[in-house]
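Hi everyone, sorry if this is the wrong subforum. Our group has a chain we'd like a structural model of before ordering constructs, and none of us has done structure prediction before. Sequence below.
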Amino acid sequence: MANLPCFASAELAAACKVLGDTTNGLSGNEIGHLLLEIGVADTDPSMTKWKRLYNALVEKQNQVKAGNFVIQFINKAMAPPRYVSAPELFRWRRDGLNVALAFVGYRVREDGLVVHATRESTVDGARARAGRLRSLLESRGIHAEVFKY
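Answer:
Right subforum, don't worry. Here is the predicted structure as tokens:
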């Protein structure tokens, strides 16, 4: 696989906030296991989940000067067999990641794999992709603070 461009800190943080979400994100053990699986050092397991994930991925990205490990982590985290008994969790994470990844020209498909997509340059464009997620969250009465992320 060719080296993929590095993720900017804002886009990487947004993806990590989805994957490390307090309610719907990966558990701390899952993060540690997945980092180990892709060969990324878990720099500080005592940190907040999303910051822990961000720091581990940004350190690896800076070492190899490529965004490949970010994509590998997302592919592993979004593998459909992990969601057999929680399909709504898969959809929630996928929709959130698709908003975060829209700015770098990627999206997560139904099979959990990250693929190239049209790059969005505006918040409105990224939100249009999130329309499905937003309507689902609104229908469930999710707190307004969640929509900031």
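For your construct planning: Residues 44 and 52 are 6 Å apart (CA to CA). The beta strands are 106-108, 114-116.
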